[in-house]
């Protein structure tokens, strides 16, 4: 990560220590990597929580684990577990590279092929250089979320965890207003990544899989020193 030279500093300024400049750059990269790990883990547990709470798979296919000070349900099905791990493994690379702008979980009816729910997580990266306004998703072509210009205040791990807890409590409480899913459903994960991202062969282009004439509910967000994640659910109105 290149740093601008401070040749315009006044003579009263002390001499810059190149080693300290490198240390500052290293600290920033470590902060970004740590923040990326937090967001990536959040996505992994979000996918599992949505699949459990919305009954996409039977409750007996899940097991309870402790995370974020909460009891979280994660899939115990080997096939689903492997699929989610493959997704989060690729997300980890894109997150560390600052390439992600959005992750979407779409629930689709197996019988009709209709998209019935769409969980959208918009990712803003602070201090990200806007190299290009064009953005491409590994599985979609919808516009990327706007970038944030203001860097948030430093937060403790406890404060970040409290914000994440609030989101998962909202996802759990969403069953009170989301229509019951009829019949068997499946799910897809869409990821919006920068146009210059390396995309594995198994990730194909896709349409946005929007909900036709659907309702939208904005949920809570959480932020770290490097990222902000906003949550939105769209759903089809009951017939």
Automatic annotation (TrEMBL):
Region (Disordered): 1-26, 134-156
GO terms, molecular function: DNA binding
Biased composition annotated in UniProt, kind: Polar residues: 1-12
Record-annotated HORMA domain positions: 33-233
Main subcellular location of this protein, as a coarse class: nucleus
Protein location: Nucleus
GO cellular component annotations of the record: cytoplasm; kinetochore; mitotic checkpoint complex; nucleoplasm
Biased composition (Basic and acidic residues): 14-26
Similarity annotation: Belongs to the MAD2 family.
Name of the protein described by the UniProt record: DNA-binding protein
Species of the source: Clohesyomyces aquaticus
